[in-house]
Specification:
Chain A is α/β, with parallel strands linked by helices. Helix content of chain A is 36%, strand content 27%. Chain C has two domains: 2-48 and 136-358, no CATH class; 55-133, Beta-lactamase Inhibitory Protein, Chain:B, domain 1 (2-Layer Sandwich). The chains are: A alpha/beta, B mainly alpha, C alpha+beta.
Amino acid sequence: MTDDRVLFDNVSRFYGEVLGVNRVTLSIPPGITSLVGPNGSGKTTLMNLMAGLVRPTRGQIRVLGIAPDDPQRLCRTVGYSTQFDSFPRGLTGYQLVASFLRLFGFDQPKCHRLASAAIERLRMGDAAHRKVAAYSKGMRQRIKLAMAIAHEPRVLVLDEPLNGLDPLVRSETIALFRECAAAGRHVIVSSHVLHEVDQISDQVILLSNGYVVAEGQIQGVRGEIQEHPMQVLIRSSRPSLLASKMFEQDHVVEARLAEDGGAVLIKTRDADRFYRALNVLALDGIDIEGVMPADDNVNSVYEYLIGGGAGL
Amino acid sequence: MAVYKRTYKAYEGALTPGWSRFLILPRSAYGRLMQSKFLVIYLVACFFFPLGCAAFIYVSHNLSFLTAMNIPASQILKVNGAFFQFFCGFQGGMAVLLTAFVGPGLVAPDLANNALPLYFCRPFSRAEYVFGKMSLLLAMLSAITWVPGLLLFLIQSSLAGAAWARENSWIGSSILEGLLVWDVVLCLIALALSAWIKWRIAAGGAILALFFAGAGFGTAINAIVRTQYGALVDLRQVISIVFAQMFRDTSPPAVSAGDAWIVLAVTCLICLRLLSKRVKAFEVVK
Amino acid sequence: MASQLFSQISAVMRLELRKSFFSRRGLWIYLLAFGPALLYLIHAIDVTRDHEHRQALLASHPVSSGALHLIRQGMPQKQVLDLLGEPYLKNEFLQNGRRRRGQDISIYHYTDGESDFTFFIVDGEVANVNEQDRCNVTKDSAIFATVFQFFYLRLAVFFGCVGIFTNLFRGEMLDKSLHFYLLAPMRREILLAGKYLAGLSAAVFIFTVGTALQIAALSWHFEPGQVAAYLHGTGWHDIAAYLGVTALACAGYGSIFLAAGLLFRNPILPATVVMLWESINIFLPAALKKISVIFYLQALCPVVAAPEADTPVLLKLLISSAEFPPAWLAITGLTAVMLVVLGVAAARARRLEINYGTE
C-alpha cells in the first residue's frame, strides 16, 4: 500500500539555524497534488527532500518505497523540474535532454527517441537545436519540463512549472499533468497561481513557515476550518425572506444581501445543517435560483490559514 | 484604481550627489567580506611586518636601548631608501595574495547571476560600476601598503628630525606613488580576470597563476631564449624594478625602468579593454 | 551492471568534455601548456638564423676551430691576431670612454661556424675567453630539465589542474547546474569517477601535447644526425619519462584539487597552501620533502635539474638534497596518495547536497 505513496514521516530539515520544514508527516497519493504557501514556507525544501537533493535532519522519507539515499532507484522513479534557472553551459536544448538521458544508462537510439518525444511534447522542436543560453524564460521552463518527463518517471515533482509560460502552453502543460495523473502517476506541483491550483489539483498541501498547515482535498480542508464560517451565495427572487428564515437557524452567523438585490450571502458554521435547512426552505416554496460556495477554494483557504499577503 | 488610492507620488526629496553613487557598491560588500574569518586573520597578519618595522625604527633611534643590549649603533641597519624599498616589496607581495582572495568575488558573481542589467537599467554607468568595485579592493590594499608605509615614514621623520625629513622627502613620495601604482594595477587585474573568467574560483586561480606562473614563465624565457627580458613577464619583478628606480637603488636591474613602466601601462590598458568588453548590460549568446 | 557503469561514466565524461574543452574560459590553461613550446620554437628559429649568420661570417672571416681553442688567458694580443687574423667584430674602449683603472680594453669576436668566441683583451693580454655554443644537446637537455621541473610541473601543470579540477564540482555549484547530475540515477562515486576521468583526459591531453611540442621545438634546430644520435641513446627513454611524469602530475594534482573543490567552499585557499608547500620543498628536510607530489615527480624525471645559476648563494645553501626513491616506489606512492584522496572525495560526494543559496 505504501509503495504507491510518497511518505514523509516526522521529517525536519534545518539549514543551520534556519528552519526549512519541521515535523512534516505526509502521505501523498497518486494524482495531482499542489504545494501551496508563501515564499519561504518550505515548498522547495519539501521537493528537494523528495528528489534526494537534500537530506532530512530528522525523520524518514519514502518515495514509492524508495529511500532518497538510493539515487540509482530514486532518480529513475522521480522526475524533478527545479526552480533553478541555470543550465550547463554550451549545450543546445536537445543535447541537454539527450545527454542527461545517457546518464540513465540508455543507449543512443533510446536517448534520441525519448529526448525527441519529450521535446515535441513540450513543443520545443523548433528551438531544440539552439543553445539553451539563448532561450527565453518560457523556453527554458519548457526544456526543464522536458528533462523531467523524458525518462517517463512515475513521480513528477515540478517547482512552479507554469512560470513564464504563455496561456496556450500553460493549458497544454496542464493537460499533460492531467494525463500523467490519469495514468496513475504522482504529479506534485508547487504554484502561487491559486486559481490554477484550484483548477487542476486533486489535493493540496498548505505550508506556512515550514509547517504543514493543511492537507487533503480542498473542500475537505475548507470544511475543517471552523473558525471561519463557510460562505454561500444563494440567488433567489426573495432574498430577504430567505435571509430571515436562515437567521432562525443557530448555525447561521451572518446573512448579507447582495448589492443587486437578487442574492444573499450566508455565513454558516455547519455546512451540512445549512444545506439540509436550505432543502427544507426550497420545499416550502422559496424560489432558489442558484447556490454557490463563495469561499470553497484554495484562495480562501490560503487567506484563512496563512493570512492575507503573509510572506508574499 | 489602486494606484491613486495609495496616493503614489514620485520622490521629490533631495538626491545624493552623483559623484558619490559608486560608493553604494562597496558599502554592502564590506560587511559580507568581513564575515570571512580567513580574510580577517589575513588582514591582521598583513600588519605584523609594518609593526615590526615600526619597532625597528624606534629601536634604531633609541641609543639607551642599544647600549643596554650591547649593540653598536653602526651595526644596526640604516633606515633609508633601501629599508623602505624592502618594505614596499614585502607589503606588495602581501597585497598580491589579498587580491587573489578578494578580487575574484568582485565582478564574477554579478556576471554569473545576471546582475549587471539590474545595475545598468538605473542611472549608473559602467565607469561608476568599475570605480565602485575597484574602490572596495583599493581601500583594502591601501590599508596594508602605502598607508602603513607613510606612517612608518612619518615615525622615522619625527625620530630622525626635520633635516632628515627634508632631505628624504622623496622617500615619502616614492612610497605613495610606487605602492599606489601597484595597488591600482592589482585592482585592474583582479577586476579584469574576475570579469573575463566569470567563475569566482577559476578567477582566483588565474590571479595566482598570473603572478606565480608568470614569474616562472619569465625565468623560463630567460633560460630558453638566453635573455633578461623574461623579467617583463613577471609582474612582481617589474614592480621591483620600478621600486628600485623610485628608491634610487644603484644595483643594475635586469631590464630598464622605462620598459618596466611600459609593461605596467600595457597591463592596465589590457585590463581596461577586457573590462570594457565584459561589463555590459547584456550578453550576446551565439 | 558493469556495462551500465561504464556507459554512465562515459556519459559523464562526454558531457564534461563537451562543456569544457575549447571553451574560452579555459584559454589561460592552453597558454600555460603551450607557452613554453612557443618559447622553444622562438629560440630554435633564433638559433637557426644565428647559425646561418655565423656560417656567413665564417665565409668572410675564415678561422679554424682548432686555432680558436688554442687561445689561452695571458696570451699576447699580437699572437691572437697572428693565429686568428682580424675578428669579424671588435670593440675598443678609448681613453674618454669606459675606462677601468686606466686600462685599455679590446673585445674580439670570432666564430668557427658553430660557436661564438669572445676574447677580452686588457692592456694587450687575453684576460678572459668566452665560448658560446648555442647548439649543444647536453646543455639544452639540462635547460629543458630545469624549465620542466621548476616551471612546467610546479606552475603550469599545477595551475592548469587547479583550473580544470576545482571547477568540476565547485564550478558547477557556482553555476547552479550540479543538481542535473544529482538527479541522474547513478551513484555519486560514479559521478565523481566520470568527472575525474574527464578532467584527467583533458589535462593529460593538453599538458602531454605541450610537453611533446616543447621537446619537438627544442630539437628542431639540431642537425638530423644529432637528433638521431640522441634518440638512439637515452632520447626515447627521456621523452617517454617526461610524458609519463606529465601525465602522473596531472593525475596527482588533479585528485588533490578535485577533492579540494568538494571539501572547501573556496578551494583557492588549499591550492595556495599546496603551492607554497611545494615551492619550499627544496628547502625542507628529507623527511618532510617526501610529503609532496613534486618530490616523487622529480624522482621520475630522467635528468636532475639544478637550481638556477643566478639563485642567491644563501638560498643555494638552504637547498637540501634527499635521495630520490626508485621509480617503482615513486609511482606506487603517488598512486596510493591519489587513491586515498579520491576515496575521501568519494565519501564527501556521497553526502553532497544542493544548497546554492550559501554559495
